[in-house]
Design goal:
Helix content is 44%, strand content 23%. By secondary structure, it is α+β, with helices and mostly antiparallel strands. Helix 1 (26-62) runs antiparallel to helix 2 and helix 2 runs parallel beside helix 6. It is globular. The protein binds adenosine-5'-diphosphate. Adenosine-5'-diphosphate (ADP) binds next to helix 4 and helix 6. One of its GO terms (cellular component) is plasma membrane. Keywords: ATP-binding, Cell membrane, Kinase, Membrane, Nucleotide-binding, Phosphate transport, Phosphoprotein, Transferase, Transmembrane, Transmembrane helix, Transport, Two-component regulatory system.
């Protein structure tokens, strides 16, 4: 389309002087739009063949007893890798949806204790025999106005990361509290921690503090980018504190405007 997009910057200098800078960012904006469309289309197109491949692999592995031994291992590897690709495609689609959808649409009261307990059960399954201790502190009526699935996905990413990057039997604390600044959700672990030099870049797509270790955890490298975008949609922001070898703390700060009353009639279960 032939829309012109201009960016205005006013700089004050001296007592009464102002400098108005007008920049034509049409090309930049169109390129960014093309990138978003491209990612959304490619992810969408990859999903169908992937689903078919995964279906066939599942059928083959369901009949593992009649397959030669040496095939089984190869098929299991293929299944593992196609699961990884499926996660990647889902994360890319979610990210492009977050970037393009309307900020204020579909806000619903979310009952936090319920959503956090569900995610923690899944995190315990992920932890398996590594037996992390996961503790939740959240007042019973805590409710916020938000997007159910998006918040679920952002909070899961934070809690699952704590499980992934904390050695066996580590401690993970999930805490929600409210004060005059709004609502705050912290996810704290005593895991491997992050070198401070990486912290400013962690929410970039595919940025990893320690690529070799992260690849082994099976993550997509998009988790914290998703968290960032979900928080932007809720006018919230992420604070990251970490010390290498000691542990990390990720805190989501939500504004008072989206904290809902205790007895909200329409809770998302
Ligand atoms: P990934 O799929 O690699 O986990 P994320 O975007 O979720 O991608 O996280 C980006 C990087 O941040 C990770 O690769 C890891 O290096 C670091 N990280 C995230 N959470 C933690 C944590 N709780 N403890 C230590 N490092 C973490």
């Amino acid at each position: 389309n032939d829309q012109l997009i201009l960016q205005f910057n006013i700089t004050l200098f001296g007592r009464n002087d102002r400098l108005l800078l007008v920049r034509d960012i049409t090309r930049l904006h169109n390129l960014e739009q093309m990138r978003k469309d491209f990612v959304a289309n490619v992810s969408h197109e990859l999903r169908t063949p992937l689903t078919v491949i995964r279906g066939y692999l599942e059928t083959l592995l369901d009949n593992a007893d009649i397959l030669p031994e040496r095939w089984i291992r190869a098929l299991q590897q293929m299944q593992q890798q196609s699961d990884r690709m499926e996660n990647l495609v889902s994360d890319l689609l979610l990210l492009s949806r977050l970037e393009t959808s309307d900020r204020q649409a579909d806000l619903k009261p979310i009952y936090l204790q319920k959503i956090l307990s569900n995610i923690i059960s899944d995190a315990k399954a992920l932890s398996g025999d590594r037996c992390h201790h996961i503790q939740l502190v959240c007042p019973e009526g805590a409710t916020l106005l938000g997007h159910d699935r998006e918040l679920h996905s952002a909070i899961s990413n934070l809690i699952f990361n704590s499980v992934k990057y904390t050695p066996a039997a580590g401690q993970i604390n999930v805490h929600w509290w409210e004060d005059e600044d709004g609502g705050h959700l912290s996810v704290m672990d005593d895991g491997i921690g992050i070198d401070p030099k990486h912290i400013p870049r962690l929410t970039e797509r595919f940025y990893r503090a320690d690529p070799s270790r992260s690849i082994n955890t099976g993550g997509t490298g998009l988790g914290l980018a998703i968290v960032k975008h979900v928080l932007i949609r809720h006018n919230a922001h992420l604070e990251i504190q970490s010390e290498l070898g000691k542990g990390s703390c990720f805190i989501c700060h939500f504004p008072p405007t989206i904290i809902a009353s205790e007895n909200s009639p329409e809770l998302v279960e």
